[in-house]
Each structure stands twice: as structure tokens, then as C-alpha cells.
Fold this protein.
Amino acid sequence: MNDSDKSDLLDDEHAIYEVVDENGVRRELVRTYTFDHNQVNYVVLFDRNDTDADGFIMRMELDNEELVLSPIEDLDEWEAVEKIYEEISAKN
């Protein structure tokens, strides 16, 4: 996969992901924002079928040629990313 293909995969705004949450419930999540912080890509996702549900912020990483979403487990990282998201939200 070349750099252009990686960029296209990471920048595909409004992509839809089907995930299974911690309770085993299958959800369709819509990518609404992406941003970088400290050379890490992040994605903001909202449930496509539940407009009242809270959103998710996750790390986006490439494993070989596959996009992998992973939770943010470090508290300092979470606080920095949350602050960036709040700034993005305030502009929209």
C-alpha cells in the first residue's frame, strides 16, 4: 500500500463502520471527524441509528493494509484528544 492509498483510507470522511460494543450489540458507526495529535490519527464516531447516543473517539491505525480502530486507554492521551475534539465541536 502506498502513502496515497493510506491517506485515502484514513481520510474517508463519513465512512460507516459496523462494530460490536462491549455488550455484544452490533452498531453502525458513522465517521464524522478525523484529526491528528502527536502523529496519531483519531476518529470521532456516532451511532447511525441512535442520534441520542454519545459519540466515540478512537485511535485509527493501519495494520498491514487494514484500518484498525482501538480505544484510547492512556488518561493523558484521552484528556488531550478530548480537548481537541471540544475545540472542533465549538467551530461546527
Observations:
- Residues 3-91 form one domain.
